[in-house]
Design brief:
By secondary structure, the protein is α/β, with parallel strands linked by helices. It is built from eleven helices and 17 strands. The N terminus is likely disordered.
């Protein structure tokens, strides 16, 4: 019988609001295996672990899952938790509700928090903690976009802007231009945490993924999108530029196509995203969760040690000259062949049984 130990727990659509929970662990009384594990976080970021898959959701559906300072901080903490937890094999990143994966943060608070716009004397507002980040803005509508395929018009509630942890430099409140500049680095730190965590990441995109949200999806290893998903970097339409998300965009599609999207602010659907190479799978809207779980489970059942070595190697040689890449990959092959999991995998294959991975 499964025993669920909960302390101060809140559940939302099968996912736990981390700010309300101390710990929750599902234990099988006979085998001791862990099912669901929950750690402390914030209400705006939901975190749960089940069957080796960590699910991390931005929980601001009424704000199109805007990336507030609290959200970015919570995402960083969630990624770090997943990286450190040996039970986690794969991380799925998504947004609650049906409208948006993530469309940034509130553009209306942008200039009130901008030390430059306020004359350079006032620090970021602690109530909004919003600063102009990499410029995540859109005029998203009801999921159909404008007739010409560009951002703008539509539902102005979805005008968004990417944010960071305003006014903080190494934990010290600085305010002013320096604080705003430092805050813009929080999304960079999130991307770096995702890329260095050693475990596959999947973006579950059910709706709008725009500006900073577009970059967040592209920072994942794979993207599974509903046929209703829309992607774009429309910052240019409001006189800004998506500086920071240039990196994940260029890693996810031909550079000139990334540049076109940034220069025009054009919003593309999931089908075109797959044609451009930055969407792995496009599925009917009602089959999205099934498709994400299927992909995540197919990786979660593999050796975590070999997945880490292989994934890290993939990114290490990305863009490298063959003369540099091959010696590195040859060394990694030797290292991988010496792991316990490699020996177990070969033994299990020869003995016609399922392997028991030890993660080393």
């Amino acid at each position: 019988m499964d025993v669920l130990l909960l302390v101060l727990t809140t559940r939302l659509a099968g996912t736990v609001a981390l700010g309300d929970i101390v710990c929750a662990v599902s234990c099988n009384a006979r085998s001791g295996s862990r099912g669901i594990q929950v750690m402390v976080m914030d209400k705006e970021v939901l975190y749960s672990v089940e069957n080796g898959i960590a699910s991390v959701y931005i929980n601001r559906p009424d704000a199109r899952n805007a990336m507030s300072a609290t959200v970015v901080s919570g995402l960083v903490k969630a990624v770090r938790m997943a990286a450190m937890d040996p039970e986690v094999r794969v991380l799925v990143l998504g947004g609650t509700g049906d409208k948006a994966f993530c469309a940034g943060a509130d553009l209306s608070s942008m200039f009130s928090s901008d030390p430059v716009a306020s004359g350079g004397s006032a620090g970021p507002s602690k109530s909004t903690q919003a600063t102009p980040g990499d410029g995540s803005f859109t005029g998203a509508g009801d999921g159909t976009g404008d007739a010409d395929g560009t951002a703008g018009g539509g539902d102005q509630d979805a005008i968004q802007q990417d944010t960071g942890n305003a006014g903080r430099t190494s934990g010290v409140e600085t305010g002013g231009i320096l604080g705003a500049h430092e805050a813009r680095g929080d999304i960079v730190r999130l991307f770096k945490e995702m890329w260095s965590m050693g475990k596959p990441t999947i973006a579950r995109v059910q709706g709008w993924a725009l500006a900073g949200g577009f970059g967040l999806a592209m920072a994942c290893d794979m993207v599974v999108a509903s046929e209703k998903a829309r992607f774009g970097a429309p910052e240019v339409n409001v006189g800004l530029w998506p500086f920071i998300i240039t990196v994940p965009l260029m890693r996810s599609m031909p550079p000139k196509m990334a540049l076109e999207l940034m220069l025009t602010g054009r919003v593309v659907d999931a089908g075109e995203g797959k044609e451009l190479g930055f969407v792995n799978r496009v599925v009917p809207h009602d089959q999205l969760d099934q498709a994400v779980e299927s992909l995540a489970s197919s990786m979660a059942k593999c050796s975590p040690a070999l997945i880490r070595l292989g994934r890290d190697s993939f990114y290490a040689v990305w863009g490298a000259k063959p003369s540099d890449a091959f010696p590195y990959l040859q060394t990694m092959l030797t290292l991988a062949s010496m792991t316990d999991d490699a020996r177990e995998g070969i033994s299990a294959f020869l003995e016609k049984r399922e392997p028991v991975w030890r993660g080393r």
